[in-house]
Amino acid sequence: MSNVNNKKRTTVHIYGQHYTIIGAEGPAHVHKVASIVDDKMREIRQQSNSLDAKQLAVLTAVNIVDDYLKLQERVKQLENKKED
Known about the structure:
The chain is α+β, with helices and mostly antiparallel strands. It has one domain (4-83). The protein contains two helices and two strands. It has helices at 27-47, 53-83; strands at residues 8-14, 17-23. Strand 1 and strand 2 form a beta hairpin. The longest helix is centred in the C-terminal third of the chain and has 31 residues, at 53-83. 4% of the residues are buried.
């Protein structure tokens, strides 16, 4: 993402808000990411209606990073298993 000329603008809709994402990835990828974030926010909101938008966003980020770290660990385990 270092070259400004390669960056694309994609507008997405996440939890009732429109965001313009600027980056190297194509629109399909950006929309997929936004859809996952939107789904996770709605899932967390169903579990607790008392959260404000900031709390919901932070809990969504924490949940997504937790999922990411677990997947990273699983990949590492599979790579180690493959080497054996």
